[in-house]
Design a protein that fits this description.
- The structure is a single chain.
- This protein is mainly α.
- It has helices at residues 4-35, 37-73.
- The protein is elongated and about 55 Å long.
Length: 74
């Protein structure tokens, strides 16, 4: 029997990571080609700072999931 929840979680994680990598590689690459290395470094900095709220939300939800799993084990 397959664990479909684990498969769905793994697929979602791979899609999110792939999308972020694609955004950074293609996005920064195009900025570098069109505007040069200084603009590419600024684009990288802006995209990195833009990911901070998403990472904070992910971390918050992960902590909530961890706490509820611990509470349900007792």
């Amino acid at each position: 029997m397959r664990d479909l929840r684990k498969y769905a979680r793994q697929t979602n994680t791979r899609l999110i990571v792939g999308g972020i990598l694609l955004l950074f590689i293609v996005g920064i690459g195009l900025i570098y080609l069109l505007y040069g290395p200084a603009a590419a470094s600024m684009g990288f900095l802006c995209m990195g700072v833009g990911l901070i709220p998403l990472l904070m939300i992910f971390l918050f939800l992960w902590v909530i999931e961890w706490v509820t799993k611990k509470a349900n084990d007792n």
